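The data layer described in this paper is built around a simple, fixed record for each protein. We quote a single record here, exactly as it is kept in our systems:
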Amino acid sequence: MSAPFLCYIKVGENQYREHFGLDFEEFEAGQVFEHRPGLTISQQDNAEEALDTINNAQLHYDACYASKTEWHKCLGVSTLTLQRLIGIASKTFARKVNISAFEDVAMTRPVFGGDTLYATSLITSKGSHNEQLGELFVTTNGINQKKQVVATIKYKILVYKNGQHPLELKLGLHRSSLPDKFCSHRQLDNGNYIEQTGIYFEDLECGETYEHSPGKTFSTEECQIHALRSLNICPQHFDQYYAEQYTNGKLIVNEPFVLGALTALTTRTFGRVVANLGWNNIKMQKPVYAGDSMYAKSTILSKRESNSRPDQGIMHVKTEGRNQFNDQLCSYERTFLIYKKGLGPYTAADY
């Protein structure tokens, strides 16, 4: 079964823009959304969350202490679980303005490093807020890899009505009827809607262009961290004083990180990927500075079936990234393996 929820807008001949999330009018009381993908939490995630928030409860990061408690290992920070579950659900609620209230947050089971979290949301009721916005009342359950409910969150969300999202107003975007491959969900036999993870090999056509949205802003901190953790000693990537003297006062993002971020921006459309086979014709047209935002666009150059993997095909795609001033920053061609329709690990993984 298919669902009418579109996550693309046609912006030209064979050109489509990603635009995730449902309009307020598309939500109905009683709908259940199963959010994908899930997210595995590590103990490093847990310790960093505790330390970054000055959490002095040592059972989150002192393994020796935690071993003497009833949990026998470090317990997950409850608000880390909350953040992850709201994030996991964001694809369906991507046209929200904000969460206006958390009415109740119940932590029903412990979460530990190594657990994988999934989320399922029930629309309990809805009401109009004003001409531009509607209000949703939502109950989201967090579920671990054992299908146990670990948290129940009841909250209110303000969501844009059809045609009222700022990008729709600014860019003049209007949704129109499109094939099922552009749907963000599919309907299960039980009536629930499960989120999709990308477009299959057969449904990607040569000559199609995809504008990937949203983009990404590079922060100073991640610019430094990605250079330092790569043993990159070029000072323009992490030495702020050097940058102030020689690079217009801003750190330069190291080039492999730019390439990786640009590739990552394409994965909402190419989410059925199996593995990258390689990049070529990579051009770094302009430095990317901390504080810059990057936006991606991909055009399908060619495709063919894999000779050695009958369940997969090979895509040849050109991608370019531009900054907030529409200056081209990076471009490349890439080949990658992608699953054919109905094949791959999705059924076994409950996707």
